[in-house]
Amino acid sequence: MFNPEIYTERRNALRNLMPSGLILLPGNSEAAYNYPANTYTFRQDSNFSYFFGLENPDFTGIIDIDNGIDYIFGNDFEIDDIIWMGPQPKVVDLAVKVGIKNTASLSELTVFINNAIQKRRPIHFAPTYRAETTLQVCGLLGLNPLRIRDYASLPLIEAVIKLRSVKSELEIAEIEKAIGTAWHMFTTGMRMAYPGRKEQEIVGAMEGISIAHGRPVSFPIILSTNGQILHNHHHENILQEGRMMVMDAGSETSLNYCSDITRTVPVGGKFSQKQREIYEIVLNANLNGIAATKPGTFYRDCHTVACETIATGLKDLGLMKGDVKEAVVAGAHALFLPHGLGHMLGLDVHDMEGLGQIHVGYDSEIQPSSQFGTAYLRMGRRLQPGFVITNEPGIYFIPELIDMWKAEKKYAEFLNYDKIEEYRNFGGIRIEDDILVTADGHRVLGKPIPKTVAEVEATMADRL
Ligand code: GLY
Ligand code: MN
What we know:
CATH class of the largest domain: Alpha Beta
Helix content: 25-40%
Bound molecules: glycine, manganese (II) ion
Largest sheet: 5 strands, mixed
CATH architecture of the largest domain: Alpha-Beta Complex
């Protein structure tokens, strides 16, 4: 974990952004897999991790806005637990490591909250995403679990997003560490992408590398020779010459910071001309989107740059036609790119999404688009130094979407459906990097992972 002062500073910064009352920040409990004692790998709640730093289940943090005191509530382990788990530190000793002197048991938390309720003190909590936490918060506050979202504190949501959006040097170093693990995952995946191999073998190797570096993957690996399915978790295909294989994966560090990278490679190690042409359009969209990334720019404008690059490239190949800017304004490019350019990255792979994407990616200056494709852009607002965002354009040939639009003659002035038919079994390509917004522009984070056609082919030549 970071030094105690970091967590104290974060809690004080949050306190200073809030009006009055208590902030209730429950950490996560163990989550049962198939019976209560058989649990998933423990993952701390990201807000708890940010403000209270401890990687232990069943802790709750309280920040008293009015008197400057912070508390950790949790139970010490008893001898029955210690027999199975080995010696365990006391809550009071753990709390000191994150700058907290005041600790008490979970039963005392109930008394503490009852006291605050009787005094009519406001109690702020963030939206919950796990049933256990929902029940805990509702039990403490006497709320209806089905309506808990109505009671989440907007001032808390906005304050947490304000703080967590701007990453410190220490946080950036953590994200780069997670990308370092991804470098090993992706170069291994590339070197394994040869005909006859099953997708699942490559998934297993990549996931194993993440675990070997200390922590599980930051989200279930997306890996498929059917990359036109955006989040494809089916890994049963046998790799065949002529297919492209999308790998979208990331790792987490011991402090829960994430990476999120995508690379697409030709099965067998050599791009065909058709594959290279589409790949280089996606690569240019990624590079042009990155080049446009700087403080003050709306991320939606970077998205538009990437969309225009894709429309230009596809027009050059004869798949699109007409005026490129008009085509993108109309939304015709979304046949090939039906998602947004990227999202924030940090303690969550879609950073802070649990607080509500509308608050993370949009504000009073800019609201989400309702247009198909751009409506999925998770991050539209102005960039600030310290933001970390993903840049992940793609071109996908989705037969079901092509058939639907073609039957409707949708955007017929911009789409050359006869030419598009030649690509209907192509699959998909996505390329994703993690980008830091700096004071005067941007920096692509982490050890560079092979990305150009030449780099990918050279890496794959060292076959595993
Ligand atoms: N890496 C998966 C996603 O961004 O949705
Ligand atoms: Mn992503």
